[in-house]
Amino acid sequence: MNIKSGKTSEGNAERRVRVVVAERNPFVVSALREMLECDGRFDLLGVVHSGAQFLELAAATQFDVAVVGWKLADMDGADLLTEVQSRQLGVRITIFSNDHDIGILKQCVRLGAQGYCFQFDDPPVIFETILAVAHGRICIPYIDINKVNDTPLSRLTVRERELLAVLSDGWTNLQIATRTGISENTVKYHLKNLYDKLEVRNRAMAVALYSSEKRRTSKSPIG
């Protein structure tokens, strides 16, 4: 892990977008490093290879945007985005993916990624995505608006939404069982079905998805 100070001196360096990269593939890292360092708009602060390293860096270093590979040494992008939300790190993330699966793109958006681009995109597209995210905008590839609105949460029943709400309040399986009058095994069965519907693997990811949805729906319309 090679990290430069997040502080910049006055002048040209101060106007540059401060970038960190999290990517496990050394060839991708090398290409990104060369692209960013040859462009005067960016200041590459450092590169990490694992999610744990990135989370440590995000808590200690100021930067404008992170470029994060979908598969890191110890976790994937969904796990990382979940941890970022859980720890309330407040960093802006562009996922840099080599997979064209629209399901991954939708999952990243639901979990709070502000940008998404592909490793095979032309450099100008990658640069503009990073710049947009660094300046507070969301920049993702085109998706059919009907597919965006069709989130896993929209397909939940009222009872499943209630279950998700108490999960977000920190209820344990035993508490859910006691207060609803069902067995813990039945609770586990319902939770498994809930995770399958949400396309997540565990409680933390389900809660992060629920929290992200609540934040979006609670925003008042402009105008």
From TrEMBL:
Keywords: DNA-binding, Membrane, Transcription, Transcription regulation. SUPFAM superfamilies: C-terminal effector domain of the bipartite response regulators, CheY-like. Pfam families: GerE, Response_reg. Transmembrane segments: none annotated. Residues 18-134 form the Response regulatory domain. It comes from the Bacteria. PROSITE patterns: HTH_LUXR_1, HTH_LUXR_2, OMPA_2, RESPONSE_REGULATORY. This is Response regulator transcription factor.
